[in-house]
């Protein structure tokens, strides 16, 4: 039954027009390339206490890649070649649970990760989709290991993360369905973990240690002469790599040398490691991610120190 | 279950007293090998009954029941769908303008495209667990975890092998450049989730996919697909090895996700509800056979929030107000808040804190992947099931 009272849109989806000139600008030579060393991380901007109404908050931003910085200073295309992660995290609580809630001997942690509608190249809806819910569960696992939950009986802690700009899953100039694995989400998770840990520290909730997130990936580049030449890279920007074979996120507590969250996916068996390195691909990948997490921990601890100094100065 | 918001990935908060938890933990972490409540060995799975092809209205289905009464049914449905891909249309338009038609095919084949390699979104998975809404964290987490390994298991096109499965499940769903299959995998847990339902659901999905048949294609090449209406000649989604092929080329099978916990220094597989509630670490590890049929390949690892973090702590006698002499006034501060005490008292349960040591992760994955290890045992067991 068609609705005769209004003009209906076409039954199938429509696609925006694509112009020849636009296609030619996306030739493969414009593909952003990684300018960093394999073990070099992007710079992180992390600041706490930006949202006064929350008990703790943090803002995290990754350094734009070299190609993005070049495009900003000398624009060749209106479309940015890659994106840089930006997210905010707020912590509300610990606060008493509502009267209707069941008794809980421990702190009830609620994590809520949401992409802003404009965060990714494709618009996200206002209702959380399954990948956002999945991210929320991963973040909850990462933080629950660090929080001493039995110190806060009958209380709740709400952690809300809004992602303002997400990482791309691939270079935008590639055909939109050339590969569909969502690698960007792993960088987003690592950023979420680091920012949430800073915000929890900003809310003065005592934890076992700060939790830092790190990403490592095994990548295969365009110029690879033969397949089976995966290289281990830390803190990969998916836009800078032609293909990512496997990636891993960890949430790591350096003081205890413990991992609270591990998420590894993809085929890690093709990794080519240095001579004399007898580790298997997945072990090397996890170690790489832990190294990346150690790197972001140094930023995290500085940010937390700054937040405490600020609090002391204003006290 | 009282608070499903809280019962996210951590399954359910266990309803055991601190004394019971402590007893369980001690017996499971014995250095000479754990003593499990049901007498299994650390790597032994619960006995189960399995049957396939139980639902006539589906392309493939399976049912698995564990001895404790938990049951799951999986139905797989396939639909033909038109491939709408921006890149292909772009490509054809450009090539129509620029190139002779004879060159077009070469150009199309050289560029990687979903039309050739398939797309992960063509596999849709939904999990229904009683007591949970379908947008609760646990079903979403479980379905993402299982879909990720299904879609991600791309086998290399080995020599002399059936190239049909070269692109993995995604590649198999491609009919031609304009049409593909869409696969709906619907998982239904029939009973209450007595234990963390992941192993049950993963095994059932594995069997259902193995029994899935797609009608035989009669059309060729880029024609609109047209199928043989004889269900008897339908082809399996995961093709069977032809009897003439050598014994070395084993059948390609869907991946399996195993649940592994560590308690103390022990590694325990397929934990039941009581065992998982005292676990130090819980990992879900997805594996499949290597393309050569030898050894195992790791597809994904995810940590699962151990429910032991949500348990209630026990109170040691030294801090217990009811057993303490009334003169213990000096310790009153500590006694009023037993959780502030940091030291471990043997025999008194404390909720687990912190994460997993790096060496424990290595140990867990090694036990799964090693030759003759648990992973191979499980896959061999599944290969024994007549599908």
From TrEMBL, chain A:
InterPro entries: ExoRNase_PH_dom1 (IPR001247), PNPase/RNase_PH_dom_sf (IPR027408), Ribosomal_Su5_D2-typ_SF (IPR020568), RNase_PH (IPR050080). Residues 40-205 form the Exoribonuclease phosphorolytic domain. It comes from Penicillium chermesinum. GO terms for molecular function: RNA binding. Belongs to the RNase PH family. It comes from the Eukaryota. Pfam families: RNase_PH (PF01138). Residues 1-38 are annotated as: Disordered. Keywords: Cytoplasm, Exosome, Nucleus, RNA-binding, rRNA processing. One of its GO terms (cellular component) is cytoplasmic exosome (RNase complex). PANTHER family: EXOSOME COMPLEX COMPONENT, EXOSOME COMPLEX COMPONENT MTR3. This is Exosome complex component MTR3. It is found in: Cytoplasm; Nucleus. GO terms for biological process: nuclear mRNA surveillance; poly(A)-dependent snoRNA 3'-end processing; rRNA catabolic process; rRNA processing; U4 snRNA 3'-end processing. The keyword rRNA-binding does not apply. The keyword tRNA processing does not apply. SUPFAM superfamilies: Ribosomal protein S5 domain 2-like.
UniProtKB/TrEMBL annotation, chain B:
SUPFAM superfamilies: Ribosomal protein S5 domain 2-like. GO terms for cellular component: cytoplasmic exosome (RNase complex); nuclear exosome (RNase complex); nucleolus. It comes from the Eukaryota. Residues 325-340 have a biased composition (Low complexity). It is found in: Cytoplasm; Nucleus, Nucleolus. Its main location: cytoplasm. GO terms for biological process: exonucleolytic trimming to generate mature 3'-end of 5.8S rRNA from tricistronic rRNA transcript (SSU-rRNA, 5.8S rRNA, LSU-rRNA); nuclear mRNA surveillance; nuclear polyadenylation-dependent rRNA catabolic process; rRNA catabolic process; TRAMP-dependent tRNA surveillance pathway; U1 snRNA 3'-end processing; U4 snRNA 3'-end processing; U5 snRNA 3'-end processing. GO terms for molecular function: mRNA 3'-UTR AU-rich region binding. Keywords: Cytoplasm, Exosome. InterPro entries: Exosome_comp_Rrp42_subfam, PNPase/RNase_PH_dom_sf, Ribosomal_Su5_D2-typ_SF. Residues 31-60, 95-119, 324-346 are annotated as: Disordered. PANTHER family: EXOSOME COMPLEX COMPONENT RRP42, EXOSOME COMPLEX EXONUCLEASE RIBOSOMAL RNA PROCESSING PROTEIN. Belongs to the RNase PH family. This is Ribosomal RNA-processing protein 42.
């Amino acid at each position: 039954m068609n609705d005769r009272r209004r003009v209906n849109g076409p039954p199938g989806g429509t696609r925006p027009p694509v112009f020849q000139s636009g296609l030619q600008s996306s030739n493969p030579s414009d593909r952003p390339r990684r300018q960093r060393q394999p073990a070099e991380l992007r710079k992180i901007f992390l600041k706490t206490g930006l949202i006064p109404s929350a008990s703790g908050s943090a803002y995290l931003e990754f350094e734009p890649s070299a190609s993005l910085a070049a495009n900003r200073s000398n624009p060749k295309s209106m479309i940015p070649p890659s994106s840089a992660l930006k997210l905010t995290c707020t912590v509300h609580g610990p606060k008493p649970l509502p009267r209707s809630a069941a008794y809980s001997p421990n702190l009830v942690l609620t994590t809520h990760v949401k992409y802003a509608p404009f965060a990714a190249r494709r618009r996200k809806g206002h209702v959380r989709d399954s990948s956002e819910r999945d991210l929320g569960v991963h973040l909850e696992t990462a933080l629950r290991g660090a929080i001493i939950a039995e110190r806060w009986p009958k209380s709740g802690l709400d952690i809300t993360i809004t992602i303002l700009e997400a990482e791309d899953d691939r270079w935008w100039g590639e055909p939109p369905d050339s590969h569909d694995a969502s690698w960007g989400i792993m960088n987003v998770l690592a950023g979420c973990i680091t920012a949430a840990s800073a915000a929890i520290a900003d809310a003065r909730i005592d934890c076992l240690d700060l939790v830092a997130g790190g990403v490592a990936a095994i990548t295969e580049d365009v110029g690879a002469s033969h397949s089976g030449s995966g290289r281990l890279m830390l803190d990969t920007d998916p836009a800078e790599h032609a293909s990512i074979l496997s990636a891993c996120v960890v949430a790591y507590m350096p003081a205890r040398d413990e991992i609270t969250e591990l998420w590894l996916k993809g085929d890690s068996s093709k990794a080519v490691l240095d001579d004399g390195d007898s580790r298997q691909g997945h072990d090397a990948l996890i170690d790489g991610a832990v190294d990346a997490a150690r790197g972001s921990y140094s930023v995290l601890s500085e940010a937390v120190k700054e937040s405490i100094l600020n609090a002391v100065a204003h006290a | 279950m009282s608070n499903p918001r809280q019962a996210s990935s951590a399954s359910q908060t266990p309803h055991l007293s601190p004394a019971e938890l402590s007893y369980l933990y001690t017996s499971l972490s014995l250095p000479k090998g754990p003593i499990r409540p049901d007498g299994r060995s650390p790597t032994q799975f619960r006995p189960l009954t399995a049957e396939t092809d139980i639902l006539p209205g589906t392309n493939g289905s399976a049912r698995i029941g564990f001895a404790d009464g938990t049951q799951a049914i999986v139905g797989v449905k396939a639909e033909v769908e038109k491939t709408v891909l921006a890149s292909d249309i772009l490509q054809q338009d450009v090539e129509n303008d620029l190139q002779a038609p004879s060159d077009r095919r070469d150009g199309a084949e050289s560029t990687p495209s979903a039309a050739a390699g398939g797309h992960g979104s063509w596999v849709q998975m939904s999990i229904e667990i009683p007591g949970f809404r379908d947008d609760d964290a646990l079903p979403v987490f479980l379905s993402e975890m299982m879909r990720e390994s299904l879609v991600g298991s791309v086998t290399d096109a080995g020599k002399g092998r059936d190239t049909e499965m070269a692109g993995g499940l995604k590649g198999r769903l491609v009919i031609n450049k304009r049409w593909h299959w869409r696969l709906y995998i619907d998982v239904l847990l029939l009973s209450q989730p007595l234990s963390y339902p992941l192993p049950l659901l993963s095994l059932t999905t594995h069997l259902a996919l193995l029994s899935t048949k797609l009608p035989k294609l009669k059309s060729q090449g880029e024609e609109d697909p047209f199928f043989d209406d004889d269900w008897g000649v339908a082809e399996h989604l995961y093709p069977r090895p032809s009897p003439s092929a050598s014994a070395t080329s084993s059948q390609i099978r869907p991946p399996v996700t195993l649940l592994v916990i560590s308690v103390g220094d022990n590694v325990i597989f397929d934990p039941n509800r009581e065992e998982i509630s005292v676990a130090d670490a819980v990992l879900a590890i997805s594996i499949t056979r290597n393309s050569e049929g030898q050894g195992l390949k790791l597809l994904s690892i995810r940590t699962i929030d151990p429910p032991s973090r949500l348990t209630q702590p026990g109170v040691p006698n030294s801090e217990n107000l009811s057993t303490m002499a009334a003169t213990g006034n000096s310790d009153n501060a500590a006694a009023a808040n037993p959780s502030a005490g940091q030291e471990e008292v043997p025999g008194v349960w404390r909720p687990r804190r912190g994460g997993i040591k790096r060496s424990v992760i290595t140990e867990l994955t090694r036990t799964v992947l090693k030759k003759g290890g648990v992973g191979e045992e499980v896959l061999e067991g599944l290969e024994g099931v007549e599908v």
